[in-house]
Amino acid sequence: MEISALFPGLWSLSAFNFVNDFVEVCKNWSGQEADEILRFTIYIKIPILRLIMRLLLSEKQVQQKVKALARKISKDFSGHEVLLIGILKGAFIFMADLARKMTTPIKMDFVRLASYGSKTRSSGRIKFTKDLETPLRGKDVLIVEDIIDTGITLNHLYQCFQARKPRSLKVVALLDKPGRRKVNFQADYVGFQIGNHFVVGYGLDWAEKYRNLCAIYVLK
Ligand code: IMP
Ligand code: MG
């Protein structure tokens, strides 16, 4: 199924992407004509953005929550070295902020995952497209995820990492959509529980876009 059929606002997102691409083309031109086109596109882009996105969590709310999570996690691990494992790509901004706010010694590694089979009939089977570079045996490990949706990714990863015999294994997710679960999975630390929305910003993407937004938005 086309993603735009699932999210009615996405036609306007396509329009926004078109304007963005157009701006990129204009940037390669020079002269007054290009400047005028660029200025004109600002007037188009801002209303389109308002049409397609609704602010869900402000930058301040996100930063306060990350700080609180870092404080709680640092206290729970109380001085032990923690190996943070970020799930690429979505978790990279959350992990960068969380790591800098933690007070325990940390090391970092990343994994990248892909699911097998067709997207319409999710097999629930996950494979590594980038595995860890660090052995987990005997370590205190914290998996860092941007969002839990069906729970399939984390459920699989958790079992896989548990088999590598870490000393402890915990999970932190900035966002959680409990209403969308297909498998029973609970993270040890959750930033915000949200409804069944598709969200972008702060590392989360739609078609690889909007990861660099500082706040979190719902795609209408
Ligand atoms: P799960 O296996 O269904 O829990 O999928 C989790 C992954 O799906 C996350 O790591 C995200 O990459 C992606 N995902 C789930 N919901 C959203 C969303 O609302 N916006 C962006 N990505 C999402
Ligand atoms: Mg992800």
Summarize the structure.
By secondary structure, the chain is an alpha/beta fold. 38% of the residues lie in helices and 25% in strands. A 6-stranded mixed β-sheet has the order 4-3-2-5-6-7. It has a 3-stranded antiparallel β-sheet with strand order 1-9-8.
CATH class of the largest domain: Alpha Beta
Are there runs of 5+ residues with pLDDT below 50, and where? none
Q: What does the overall shape look like?
A: elongated
| Strand count | 9
Q: State the share of residues found in helices, binned by percent.
A: 25-40%
Rg calc: 20 Å
CATH topology of the largest domain: Rossmann fold
What is the mean pLDDT? 87
Order of helices and strands: HHHEHEHEEEHEEEE
Strand content: 25-35%
CATH architecture of the largest domain: 3-Layer(aba) Sandwich
Measure the end-to-end span.
18 Å
Q: Number of helical runs?
A: 6
Bound molecules: inosinic acid, magnesium ion
Q: Order of strands across the widest beta sheet?
A: 4-3-2-5-6-7
